[in-house]
Amino acid sequence: MSAARVAIIDGGGANIASLRFALERLAVESELTVDIATIRSASHVILPGVGAAADAMNRLRKAGLDRVIPELTQPVLGICLGLQLLLEASDEDDAECLGILRGTARRFEAVADQPVPHMGWNRITRTNGGSVVGLLNDIPDGAYFYFVHSYALDVNATTVASATYGWDFSAVVMHNNFMATQFHPERSGAHGAALLTNFLSCY
Description:
With 203 residues, the chain is α/β, with parallel strands linked by helices. It has a single domain, classed as 3-Layer(aba) Sandwich (Rossmann fold). The chain is built from six helices and 14 strands. The protein has an eight-stranded mixed beta sheet with strand order 2-1-3-4-14-13-12-9. The radius of gyration is 15 Å and the shape is globular. The mean pLDDT is 93.
């Protein structure tokens, strides 16, 4: 794993420091960058994100990464907003996203016992063959992860684990070399570390 060359796409997210620290704990160096050559040559790419989908997509477009990211062939991991950016669209400001994964992120409906954003620990349940997906190796079904988000993707064919907050939504998705988590693995303790380890062991 120490040979991994991880490029973290700099989309202006506030969770970058905790993500880099989580990778350091795994003895993996990372580079925060929008440089196309660096991203293309990395062994693994992470697309994190916190904030609004439209703003994040504008930053990617300005860097020319809206065209580069869909062409990547190495393992790519989206985190939180990064998952939503991999989708076709988000209902947030009617944002058009990267279109790598099918679906549109939609907003949770706030009710008395379900404030928005969905913030805190929640358990995930494997689905659609998620028990054999390498990203979830050594992570028990029903494990808890830390979530902070207002929008989510319905469960669909790319979902390998779901969570429930008023309705079932995609917690982990995967399609070819693209995978993503709606939760923050870098803030999810031992299970989050295991997931990052599994991602870095891909390919």
